[in-house]
């Protein structure tokens, strides 16, 4: 969460300095937005998937716990830490930033 917010603020700083703007201010709302996005992805998707698997697999011997799904999705979002750092390198290439997010 913090690496996404810090990288977002640094990317804004670099883009304003490249554009020649004299004044830049940090944005603490990026921490809130990043935490909302990460916790929604890491909490709601496993909950919905667990509900679907519970509904679809009644009577099945294969059971997946909610904690296992939560851990799986938690580990799946660790790729966004290096991607948020790579965003700093490609500040002027906006389309490449979005490709990095889609690849992640």
Tell me what you see in this structure.
By secondary structure, this protein is an all-alpha fold. It contains 5 helices and no strands. It has helices at residues 2-19, 29-56, 66-76, 80-89, 94-103. Helix 1 (2-19) packs across helix 2, helix 1 packs parallel to helix 4 and helix 2 packs across helix 3 (66-76). It is elongated, with a radius of gyration of 18 Å. The mean pLDDT is 78.
Write the layout of secondary structure elements.
Layout: H1 2-19, H2 29-56, H3 66-76, H4 80-89, H5 94-103
Helix pairs in contact: 1-2, 1-4, 2-3
Helix content: over 70%
Low-confidence stretches: none
Order of helices and strands: HHHHH
The coarse overall form would be elongated
- What do the pLDDT scores average to? 78
Task: Give the helix/strand class.
Answer: mainly alpha
Give me the number of helical elements. Answer: 5
Relative strand content: under 5%
Q: Largest sheet, if any?
A: none
| Number of β-strand runs | 0
Radius of gyration: 18 Å
Distance between the termini: 15 Å
Spell out the key features of this protein:
104 residues, single chain, mainly alpha
Task: Characterize this entry briefly.
The chain has 104 residues and is mainly alpha-helical. It has helices at 2-19, 29-56, 66-76, 80-89, 94-103. Helix content is 74%, strand content 0%.
């Amino acid at each position: 969460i913090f690496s996404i917010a810090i990288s977002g603020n640094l990317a804004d700083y670099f883009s304003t300095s490249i554009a020649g703007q004299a004044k830049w201010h940090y944005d603490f709302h990026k921490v809130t937005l990043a935490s909302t996005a990460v916790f929604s992805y890491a909490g709601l998707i496993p909950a919905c998937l667990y509900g679907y698997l519970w509904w679809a697999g009644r009577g099945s011997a294969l059971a997946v716990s909610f904690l296992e799904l939560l851990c799986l999705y938690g580990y799946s979002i660790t790729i966004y830490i290096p991607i948020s750092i790579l965003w700093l390198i490609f500040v002027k290439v906006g389309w490449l930033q979005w490709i990095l997010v889609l690849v992640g």
